[in-house]
């Protein structure tokens, strides 16, 4: 069972979201942040949130600006926008009487939830899956375009069958984002999940995040998983681990 909602982004355009509702007793509520250009309906987001809902944790997943059913131009966004919109998602849930205690983020979204937690007083636990230690890691996805963007201000970026506009302000913003201090001062329980065979965001990123974090911190190796958790059991397994780990914080 899912509830379709919209809420205003930090920059104005409405964002489309989906709340995967628990069918039985509600253990708690959370917000999920998807990867770089993936959207709320990508396999990782959908399967993890549905499994968490089956475990009694209702989850809001949403499309970032210009993706999926959300309004706006993706090219107007940035890492800072993604963080701020994650905060907006938590505020939407809290205002509707579903107080959020858990943030879950995949890949680029994993970095975003770590940063966003600082502005979410109700959040007690954060789980990252395949997250980069520094948001600028995402530059590897468009490194061939960097010089053109720096000189022309923007360039068409093709990824996953989508043609998106990548602008200079995104590059400048993501380079300026420093996650190290955000991790050190998180003051929330942190679960770092990563596959040792992740060829998109290497396992060294998880080591850096874990070393920078303070207790309570946990690490789980997603043995055999790829970065996108494309096989169904991979995402479901990750969700079951998150569910058990998050129990004291819900």
From TrEMBL:
<dbReference type="InterPro" id="IPR029058">
    <property type="entry name" value="AB_hydrolase_fold"/>
</dbReference>
<dbReference type="Pfam" id="PF12146">
    <property type="entry name" value="Hydrolase_4"/>
</dbReference>
<feature type="domain" description="Serine aminopeptidase S33">
    <location>
        <begin position="29"/>
        <end position="137"/>
    </location>
</feature>
<dbReference type="InterPro" id="IPR022742">
    <property type="entry name" value="Hydrolase_4"/>
</dbReference>
<protein>
    <recommendedName>
        <fullName>Serine aminopeptidase S33 domain-containing protein</fullName>
    </recommendedName>
</protein>
């Amino acid at each position: 069972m899912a509830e379709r909602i919209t809420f205003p982004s930090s920059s104005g355009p409405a964002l489309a979201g989906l709340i995967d509702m628990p069918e039985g007793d509600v253990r708690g509520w959370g917000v999920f942040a998807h990867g770089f250009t993936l959207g709320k309906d990508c396999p990782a987001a959908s399967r993890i949130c549905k499994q968490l809902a089956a475990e009694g944790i209702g989850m809001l997943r949403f499309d970032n600006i210009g993706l999926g059913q959300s309004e706006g131009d993706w090219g107007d966004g940035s890492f800072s926008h993604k963080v701020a919109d994650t905060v907006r998602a938590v505020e939407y849930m809290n205002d509707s009487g579903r107080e959020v205690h858990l943030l879950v983020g995949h890949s680029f979204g994993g970095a975003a939830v770590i940063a966003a937690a600082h502005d979410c007083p109700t959040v007690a636990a954060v789980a990252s899956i395949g997250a980069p230690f520094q948001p600028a890691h995402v530059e590897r996805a468009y490194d061939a375009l960097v010089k053109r963007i720096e000189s022309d201000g923007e360039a068409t970026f093709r990824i996953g069958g989508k043609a998106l506009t990548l602008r200079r302000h995104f590059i400048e913003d993501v380079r300026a984002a420093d996650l190290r201090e955000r991790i050190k001062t998180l003051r929330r329980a942190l679960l770092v999940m990563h596959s040792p065979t992740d060829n998109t965001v290497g396992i060294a990123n998880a080591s850096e995040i874990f070393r920078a974090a303070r207790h309570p911190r946990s690490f789980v190796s997603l043995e055999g998983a790829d970065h996108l958790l494309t096989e169904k059991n991979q995402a479901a397994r990750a969700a079951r681990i998150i569910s058990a780990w998050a129990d004291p914080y819900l």
